[in-house]
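Q: Convert this sequence to structure tokens.
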Amino acid sequence: MKNKTQKINSTIPFQGYYGSEIDSFIDSHIEYEIEHIREEYKANEKQLETIANGFMSTNVNSFYNNVSKEYAEEFIFLLENEIGFKLNASFESLESPKEYNFSTDRIFIELPENKAIEFINYILKNYKEELEKLIKKRFTSYDGFISFYPNSLKEWGNPIEWDYNQLGTCFEIFDYIGNDIELNESIYNGIYETLDYESNCILSELMEKKEIAEYNDSIQIKLQFV
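A:
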């Protein structure tokens, strides 16, 4: 961190998508939509299977990006309520590994450097012991892991020189906030955007068939009163 007027990036606590509670919630939402399609449009098993497999087939990066944006905005809002001052932070990006063997998805936010320093000072004043424990836990080397950071707060030096991993460690103190974040809106609004072409065609045909059936029923009702 060099310039007080520039914006800098930081990670925030996030469990990722692969094999996580969020991943399970997305799967549950898809199952719910399949049951809705079954009941609403009287789809047969073959149609339902095709549609179920069609979810999360297109626009997947955009979907996860939008979910991550909602998560970051909600995390920032809840954190600001807890610490009592504004961070003026916003969602910056989602970073996903090529393989999930050793790492998971990470969400980055951006915030003004002066706000980052204000936040670090707040942590050093109120959560210094928790920060020291986190640093030791996250940055101590062991078999299979080599840390590129010192594992003590004292060795980190001036906070103005800290990078996104070090600043992100301060945010990790509030990882419990993630338990209170609901992502219903972005998942509900975006899940159908991930359907492949074949599934969209089947769904459109089912919707059209239902509309025709409802129209015919309305005509029959009118004829009964003629």
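Strands lie at 7-12, 90-95, 106-112.
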